[in-house]
Amino acid sequence: MERIPLIAGNWKMYTSLAEARTLAAAVVSACKGLTGREVMIAPPFTALATVAEVVHGSEVRLAAQNVCWEEQGAFTGEIAPGMLRELGCTMAIIGHSERRQIFGETDALINQRVAGAMRHGIAPVLCFGETLAEREAGQTMAVLERQVRAGLSGIVVAEPANMVLAYEPVWAIGTGKTASEEQAQEAHEFVRNLLGAMYEKSIAHQMRILYGGSVNSGNVDALLRQPDIDGALVGGASLKADSFERIIHFRQ
User: Fold this and answer.
1) Catalytic residue chosen out of the listed positions 98, 130, 168, 188
2) Does any domain span residue 236?
3) CATH number of the domain that 88 lies in?
4) At residue 196, what are phi and psi to the nearest 5 degrees?
5) Out of 38, 96, 98, 105, which one is annotated catalytic?
6) Residues facing residue 7 across a β-bridge
7) Which among 85, 27, 97 is positioned nearest to 238, based on CA atoms?
8) Element containing residue 4 per DSSP (H, E)
């Protein structure tokens, strides 16, 4: 089974409701008649209901930027998987570097989120990646292995197409710096082989691994031509309809 590329837009903490509605409508329009790829957008929580109305009936998948592992309870500030499903979310970004770096989310906590999402039919987009200091110290692959193994600890992957990973070198996020296609491919190939060791090669072959880190309309084609890069997790460029449309229509 061939992997279907996924272009995922992470809107982070941007967009008013009006802006979210306009941007979502532009994405839906850009995806009409689109084949050979999937598109996902992750608005802020406040805009999920609004965007859900816009993307309803379209090919665009709706995602949350995080998800709790519990069904309900005294978890102030968290959003339960069932609440997200009720809004129409089918995916959730988990373990983004900003959650790790700014909010102190640990590998163990991220693993709980992955498990909770999967229990409720939400496909995780598990993020991982090294800092600049870790790369310069030659620790990149060790960091990736630790984060992937911990994030997927105890996770049974029954439907590999619904388990998405995203390699996002921390030093390339929002900085304008992008890993070269060779650097990105090297990391993706390493993780693909790691998944083969953790599960089975056939499962590893079906799991999508996205690249995230200053992806834009100018570098997306070269990145997605790499054999183990199965799409992109796009930040800033997903907030501009024209640039995101160009990324959606990447050329291999």
Assistant:
1) 168
2) no
3) 3.20.20.70
4) -65, -35
5) 96
6) 39, 232
7) 27
8) none
Task: State the residue for tokens 């069904």.
Answer: 71
How far, in Å, are 34, 61, 159 from residue 38 at the CA level? 8, 8, 16
How far apart are the C-alpha atoms of 193 and 211, rounded to whole Å? Answer: 16
d(CA 27, CA 15): 14
Quote the pTM value.
0.97
Q: Establish if 99 belongs to a structural domain.
A: yes
Tell me the Ramachandran region of residue 57: left when phi exceeds 0, alpha when psi lies from -120 to 50, beta otherwise: left
CA dist list (Å): 250 to 83, 99, 160, 220 = 33, 28, 24, 6
d(CA 43, CA 22): 12
105 is a domain residue: yes
Query: CA nearest 89: which of 119, 117, 126?
Result: 117
pLDDT digits (tens, 9 = 90+) for 136-172: 999 999 999 999 999 999 999 999 999 999 999 998 8
What is the number of domains present in the chain?
1
Per-residue model confidence as pLDDT tens digits over 87-107: 999 999 999 999 999 999 999
Domain of 62, in residue numbers: 1-7+38-157
In the annotation, is 120 catalytic?
Answer: no
**Does the residue 178 lie in any domain?**
no
